[in-house]
Specification:
Layout (H helix, E strand, L loop, with lengths): L38 E4 L8 E4 L1 H9 L9 H11 L14 H4 L3 H6 L1 H4 L27 H9 L8 H15 L8 H19 L4
Antiparallel strand pairs: 1-2
Helix pairs in contact: 6-8, 7-8
Length: 206
Amino acid sequence: MGLDSKYFDRIRTRRKRPQEPEQGPPTCQWDGCDKHGTHRAPVGRNAEGQFFLFCFEHVKEYNKGYNYFSGLSDGEIARYQKEAVTGHRPTWTVGVNKAAKHSPLQSEVRSGAYTRVRDPFGFVKDGDGRGSGPRFPEQRKLKTLEAKAFDTMGLGANASAPDIKRRYKELVKMHHPDANGGDRGSEERFRAVIQAYQLLKQNGFC
């Protein structure tokens, strides 16, 4: 094949690019130092992800005096440490988000059961579309004296206010000294019932 063949015109060769000079490691950023900056050091608060580059000697010197909370008061430092427990995300105290109590469960929404349930007689939901009660039954956590007061009146911890008042009237009538001929035991029982009722009333049970 001759050199003047048409096939030579179709051959393209890639031109060699001039090689760029290799850059060495950066210089230490410590003032007046010409050594290689091979060690990273954090810039500081409000500059997360940014670093200085120092040589080994100067990064040790920098870390000795580094203080992330520099410029903050003791109160600001305490607040930062408290928020760090939750990853600085907002939190709510118990009972603030009341709408979640009546909202459907995530599994109900995902399956579509919450929207497809027909309840023409309102057994499941009341007039405003909310459930007739909480999804999880709430139980009272009684203190020692409260539990003793319920026991004195012969009632369970879930007794309602009308039940407590009704039981109180029954016991007062039953153990009143006039109705028992001044019996000493009945008088002590009468006094215990009154004290138990007063304690439950003061603590909001009736």
